[in-house]
Structure formats: C-alpha cells, structure tokens
Amino acid sequence: MNLFRLILDIRETLTNKELRDSIILESGADIKISDRISRKSIDTKLIPERPHWYKVLRLVHRSLIKYLSGKLDEAENLINEAKKELLLDKTTYYKDYCTDIRNIYQHFIDNFPIPLEINVCLKIYLKHCEGFRFR
Length: 135
Known about the structure:
50% of the residues lie in helices and 4% in strands. With 135 residues, the chain is mainly α. It starts with 10 loop residues before the first strand and ends in a 9-residue tail after the last helix.
C-alpha cells in the first residue's frame, strides 16, 4: 500500500532535519534555517462566518460526542454552555442529560435551518443517547 501524507504549514523557519525530510511544493521566499521551528500566524477571511445558532449547535455536537465516549462531565459542561448561549428556560431545559438533549434538538429543529447532512449526523448520535426518542 502506498501512503501519501500532506502537511500544510506556514513557517517562518525550518530545522535542517525538516528540510531534509520534506518535499517543499511552494515557497514564496528564501527558506530560513533555525534550531527551532517558528510558525507564522494566519489571519484569513477564508473561513466563512457562521451564525450564532450554528456555533451553539457545534457545542451540542461536541457534547454528544463526549457523552457517547463516556466523558459525562465534559458532555454536561458543554451542554450547559449551549443552554446558556440559547437562553433556555431553566424549568424546561435543566433535567437529565438525555432529556435536555432531546429538548435542545427539538428547539433547533423548530427554530433554525439545520442543514440536512448535519441533521442526519445528529440523529445518528442521538439514537445512542439513552432514552432518546424522535418526535
């Protein structure tokens, strides 16, 4: 089997070993050699700005992954952060984890245009959350 690995990195300096072990496809300037690697900071507008609800949905997604991998405290912290960001009613949304996830998922379905591929992914994860039922 042939393996191919591509690492994209923007550096100010490289080490001699890195230079020997690499194939440099593009270099906009002279390569500076140093004892230490120095990375350049990147300021770009290439990453699209997402709406607030989408960023909160990412918290829910991360929380589900933590929950399913048995990291219950981390899952609970992330879902609590999502609840705060959504300004959700404490009487409705501060139950057990799976009830909260069900209610938050329904809140997203009812209020935001969740892309189909994200919705499908969430449904797959949610099926594994104890006690979760789709409406």
